[in-house]
Amino acid sequence: MILIKAFVLSGIKKIEIGERERPVPLAHEVLIRVEAVGLCGTDFKLYRGEYGDAYPLIPGHELAGTIEEVGEGVKSFQAGARVTVIPNIPCGSCSYCLEGMKNQCPNRTAVGITRDGAYADYVVVPAASVCPIGDLPAPVASFIEPLACVLRGVERVQVKAGQKVMILGTGTTAHLYAQILKGQGCDCIVVGRRQSKLSWFREHGLETVSTAQHPLEEIAKAYGEKVDVLIDAIGMPAWVEALVPVLRRGGKILVFGVAQGEICFNYFDIYRKELQILGSFSLIDKFPQAIALLRNKTVVVDHLITHQGKLTDLKKILEEGKSDDMLKFVVLLGKE
Ligand SMILES: [Zn+2]
Ligand SMILES: [Zn+2]
Questions:
Q1: Domain match, 29 and 100 both
Q2: How large is the C-alpha radius of gyration of the chain?
Q3: Which of 31, 90, 111, 213 is a Cys-bridge partner for 25, taking CB atoms 3.0 to 4.6 Å apart?
Q4: Nearest ligand atom owner, CA of 104
Q5: Distance between Cα 297 and ligand 1 center (Å)
Q6: Relative to the alpha carbon of 99, which ligand is closest?
Q7: Residue 68 resides in a domain
């Protein structure tokens, strides 16, 4: 029996870091030695009991590592391959799966959400969920999953070069949207609270607006009917509500940030201005594209990795919250 270190959520707000038996890959599964895992907002929700109830659970779904062992029948991978994992495992046979909407599969399971994930030295996943990453550094590769989700959002809004896009938020998600949409020739305006968080965007040629200096109503007026796409990359329904007037006719709102709540806006405007409200949940088939964008450095993430640490540091962050200067925390495994 080989013992490995694992971070286990044994219940709501109950974390246990300890040893457990190394999992064994069954037929059509692979055993991955984990190198890096990104901390995601979903992990906070799992910790607080706001999402799913699959305790005890090892979370961690934004991972990179090396295949150590393959189960029976696995032909596409061999030990030694550096890989990442598509966390969603759709059933493949429901009406949504058959229509290509795998992210909406009601029978879907997910690595690190409904089954054990990567906050451990090793994780077992279906071979069909694995994607090769070549020599991409593991901390960078931990961004493949969040980037794939953003690419789904970009696919939803179908922007055209030259369009004006207003991005709400200054977190990792906003950074990824800004880089991709700027790359597609869009004119981006990033709306955030703190100047310190807006400075990177400004230094990289993007327009920024601070809500600390300009009340939302003022921003709504200043950009009235000038914006083609409004992207909520933070989960602030109140901001979206206040900023609907910035949309041009035919404008789109992308609901990407995760938040509960209700907002209210003029029904007639939707009709008269032909506005569109689009949701974007998780991802569909965007892993190869995300890997390519990181490999050829069309999207850079090094500046987003503000903190790295061990499983014990992860525990502290979940219990005490993220510090103000933290964008992405990446857990490094196998280095203790
Ligand atoms: Zn995530
Ligand atoms: Zn399905």
A1: yes
A2: 21
A3: 31
A4: 2
A5: 21
A6: 2
A7: yes
| C-alpha 282 to ligand 2 mean position (Å) | 14
- Do 87 and 113 reside in the same domain of the chain? yes
CA distances from 64 to 31, 140, 265, 320 (A): 12, 9, 42, 26
Residue pLDDT tens, the chain, 336 long: 899 999 999 999 999 999 999 999 999 999 999 999 999 999 999 999 998 888 999 999 999 999 999 999 999 999 999 999 999 999 999 999 999 999 999 999 999 999 999 999 999 999 999 999 999 999 999 999 999 999 999 999 999 999 999 999 999 999 999 999 999 999 999 999 999 999 999 999 999 999 999 999 999 999 999 999 999 999 999 999 999 999 999 999 999 988 889 999 899 999 999 999 999 999 888 999 999 999 999 999 999 999 999 999 999 999 999 998 999 999 999 865
Asked if the structure places residue 101 within a domain, the reply is: yes
Nearest ligand (C-alpha, residue 95): 2
- Ligand closest to CA 86: 1
Strands (E), the chain: 3-11, 14-21, 29-38, 63-70, 82-85, 88-89, 109-110, 122-126, 130-132, 164-168, 187-192, 207-210, 227-232, 247-255, 276-279, 305-309, 328-332
**How many A from CA of 302 to the centre of ligand 1?**
17
CA atoms of 310 and 331, how far apart (whole Å): 5
> Based on the domain organization, do 51 and 25 belong to the same domain?
yes
Spacing, Cα 219 to ligand 1 middle (Å): 30
CATH code (residue 36): 3.90.180.10
Residues 125 and 237 in one domain: no
Interval between CA 1 and ligand 1 midpoint (Å): 32
End-to-end CA distance of the chain: 20
Confidence (pTM): 0.95
Is-contact 291 268, C-beta < 8 A?
A: no
CATH code of residue 179: 3.40.50.720
Q: How far is the CA of 278 from the centre of ligand 2 (A)?
A: 22
Establish if 295 belongs to a structural domain.
no
For residue 92, give the ligand nearest its CA: 2
Domain of residue 46 covers: 3-143+301-332
Residue 59: nearest ligand to its CA? 1
